[in-house]
């Protein structure tokens, strides 16, 4: 792709009917970044992503993707998306892991074209990238939440996107496997050069993984490097989250404690 920023938002606002849920957001996502998008429940994170994906149209402001106004942007295979509800296949769902991953190629080859050997290899290679090649012929519903999540990432990777957007990808991942999961994302970012934007509620650990953090509550309250976010003090977070957030640091592990008072 070109050297333009991947996403540029310029004074973007959005309302569902009457209520403004995204207000005057200006931000830039540059190639190679791993961004964590944090904010309280209902603060507009998913809506901001829908705006970037062209699934909702901003009521004010401008959005550019890879340097092009979003209205003219056509190269959607450059953007992979793993949604919040991705890992919800029940056991018995009649699809193999390989079939689920190949479905990610539909935007590339068109709905009514057939998959060929090259597509199969591409899907297997994406499964290898996420460490799931041994499960290609397993039934998707028989996998754990964390394994399914890896498969959904593989599905988003088959079209070789430059940007991968993940909406709360650690939901449903067993806590024992969360670190492993973050390591996978780190590898995609550093070794595969994929820019990552990840919505998370994990405000304590995000800076261990992300290079940059965006903290929003309708509008952007912080956007900067992870090191700066660590200095974004407790009072700022309390103000944003509307309740007390204590960040406790034990060695390198951070834990959040919420008091609803
Ligand atoms: N389709 C919709 N129609 C009307 N209001 C909506 C719709 N989707 C979301 N909202 C409202 O917009 C606001 C922002 O929602 P959004 O899902 O973007 O927040 P979020 O930060 O992603 O929340 P969470 O962390 O809980 O997932 C909320 O008040 C929500 O109730």
Outline of the structure:
The chain is globular. 29% of the residues lie in helices and 29% in strands. The protein is of the alpha/beta class and 261 residues long.
What would you note in describing this structure?
The protein has a domain at 7-83 and 162-259: Rossmann fold, CATH 3.40.50.300. It is globular. Helix 4 packs across helix 5. The strands form three sheets. It has a six-stranded mixed sheet with strand order 6-7-8-3-9-10, sandwiched between helices. A four-stranded antiparallel sheet has the order 2-1-4-5, with helices on one face. It has nine helices and twelve strands. It starts with 6 loop residues before the first strand and ends with a strand. Helix content is 29%, strand content 29%. The chain binds adenosine-5'-triphosphate. Residues 16, 21, 39, 41-47 line the site of adenosine-5'-triphosphate.
Bound molecules: adenosine-5'-triphosphate
Report the sheet-strand fraction: 25-35%
Distance between the termini: 49 Å
What assembly state would you assign to the polypeptide chains in this entry? single chain
Placed side by side, the strands forming the largest sheet appear as: 6-7-8-3-9-10
According to DSSP, the number of beta strands is: 12
CATH architecture of the domain at 7-83 and 162-259: 3-Layer(aba) Sandwich
How many H/I helical runs? Answer: 9
What is the fold-level CATH name, i.e. the topology of the domain at 7-83 and 162-259?
Answer: Rossmann fold
CATH class term of the domain at 7-83 and 162-259:
Alpha Beta
Taking pLDDT < 50 over at least 5 consecutive residues as the criterion, the unreliable ranges are 247-261
Mean of residue pLDDT?
A: 84
Q: For the report, how would you describe the main beta sheet?
A: 6 strands, mixed
Radius of gyration: 19 Å
H and E string = EEEHEEEHHHHEHEHEEHHEE
Fraction of residues in helix: 25-40%
Q: Class by helix and strand content?
A: alpha/beta
User: At the fourth CATH level, what is the homologous superfamily of the domain at 7-83 and 162-259?
Assistant: P-loop containing nucleotide triphosphate hydrolases
InterPro entries: AAA+_ATPase (IPR003593), ABC_transporter-like_ATP-bd (IPR003439), ABC_transporter-like_CS (IPR017871), Metal_Ion_Import_ABC (IPR050153), P-loop_NTPase (IPR027417)
Family: Belongs to the ABC transporter superfamily.
GO molecular function, one term: ATP hydrolysis activity
Domain ABC transporter: 7-243
């Amino acid at each position: 792709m070109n050297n333009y920023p991947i996403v540029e938002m310029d004074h973007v606002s959005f309302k569902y009917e009457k209520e403004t849920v995204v207000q005057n957001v200006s931000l830039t996502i540059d190639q190679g970044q791993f961004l964590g998008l944090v904010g309280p429940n209902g603060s507009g994170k998913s809506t901001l992503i829908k705006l970037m994906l062209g699934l909702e149209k901003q009521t004010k402001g401008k959005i550019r993707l890879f340097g092009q106004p979003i209205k003219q942007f056509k190269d959607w295979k450059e953007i992979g998306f793993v949604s919040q509800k991705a890992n919800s296949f029940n056991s018995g769902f009649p699809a193999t892991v390989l079939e689920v991953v190949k479905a990610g190629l539909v935007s590339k080859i068109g709905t009514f074209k057939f998959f060929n050997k090259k597509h199969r290899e591409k899907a297997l290679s994406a499964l290898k990238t996420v460490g799931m090649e041994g499960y290609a012929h397993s039934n998707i519903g028989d996998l754990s939440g964390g394994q399914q999540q890896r498969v959904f990432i593989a599905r988003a990777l088959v079209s070789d996107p430059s940007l991968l957007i993940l909406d709360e990808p650690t939901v449903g991942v067993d806590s024992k496997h969360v670190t492993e999961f973050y390591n996978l994302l780190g590898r995609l970012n550093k070794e595969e050069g994929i820019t990552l934007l990840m919505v998370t509620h994990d405000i304590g650990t995000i800076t261990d993984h992300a290079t940059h953090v965006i903290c929003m509550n309708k509008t952007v309250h912080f956007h900067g490097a992870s090191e700066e976010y660590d200095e974004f003090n407790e009072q700022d977070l309390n103000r944003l989250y509307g309740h007390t957030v204590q960040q406790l640091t034990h060695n390198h592990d951070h834990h959040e404690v919420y008091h609803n008072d």
